[in-house]
Fold this sequence. Notes:
- Pyridoxal 5'-phosphate binds at residues 218, 356.
- The protein is of the alpha/beta class.
- It has helices at 3-13, 22-35, 54-63, 72-80, 97-105, 115-124, 162-172, 190-204, 232-250, 262-265, 298-302, 389-393; strands at residues 17-21, 42-47, 66-69, 88-90, 109-112, 130-135, 157-158, 176-180, 212-214, 255-258, 269-280, 285-289, 308-310, 318-324, 332-340, 347-350, 371-376, 379-384.
- 30% of the residues lie in helices and 23% in strands.
Amino acid sequence: MDAQILNNVAEEFGAPLYLYDSEKIRSQYERLTRAFKSVPSLKLNYAVKALSNLSILRLMKQLGSGLDTVSIQEVRLGLHAGFSPEEIIFTPNGVSLSELEEAAGLGVRINIDNLSVLEQFGSRHPEVPVCIRINPHVMAGGHSNISVGHIDSKFGISIHQIPHLLRIVDLTGMNINGIHMHTGSDILDIEVFLYASEILFETAKNFRNLDFIDFGSGFKVPYKEGDIQTNVEELGSKLGSRFNDFCKEYGKELVLAFEPGKFLVSEAGYFLARVNVVKQTTSTVFAGVDSGFNHLIRPMFYGASHEIINISNPGGKERYYSVVGYICETDTFGSNRRINEISEGDILCFKNAGAYCFSMASNYNSRYRPAEVLWHEGKAHLIRAHETFEDITRNQVDPAGLFEPEERVVNVK
């Protein structure tokens, strides 16, 4: 996005803030659908956890997406945004049976990833169709915290537990209408993904009433110019062909489902923060901004890399800076980055800030969460206001008189 547009948005709405480009989201959605054009029935279910603003969800609905949700609150957000229950799949991990029953009561599709809850749910609600999340025991993903398909993962039912799974299905008489996996995020090796897919195809043969097979997502996006990314076109060609062949073997046209989150919104997002101080030490020049990992935690949490540019001085001489936040502990966005010369008051832009950025923001240090703005059809639209002190205190309860200060009599001479 043009630096002048970014500066204008920061000037109009104030920094720090998140800005999302609806056209980039649209182009990513269309790119993925084109990659799998050979598949007669394709369904993309946007992963709400990546970015859950209602305006973004409504944009996804306009594009034709369904929703992948991981909490009952995300389910309710989807319904509030206008999605019908059948357009939403609920894929939680480690939640109570009551939360699954609440989701089923709302009419959304259910995805279960452990034998204990599968047996309980099937015994009580055999009439409710259920998808099963399989753990294919395939290690994939760009970081240990986002690799979720390996043997030690808490996610999914192990492929080695298939006999036990089939026994539960047989005894409860429940209907399995889908099979699902998710190996991890930031996947580069398509062959690893295809290998895991074969495990899913083999598992699917055990169930004769399937409507869909969900292959998760995890497609890697570029984080800087020239960075490597998942070749979704090659994946679409290879997996699409294999999926069509499997449907012929299975004797039924199934839906090929994905649950992209980062792929759709990461590159569409920009985080804008103002420089409070430029601090020279004996070995480092720090650029301290009016933000921290309370707003953008990925660099500290995952070691994620976000390209940082100075949109206030795009043509300036480049120098090396460590960009840090105002949180009172180690709070580093990037170390020794080559950035156009920074002055106090400049606006820095963090790219790839659409996915798992605002959605993981907090009020740590009692700081306010930033605003969100959508750039749509050439105009900036505020889609979440900056928080205020009232937002910090809104749900805190002060029992009347419990800690009232004692009255003190002061004698004035």
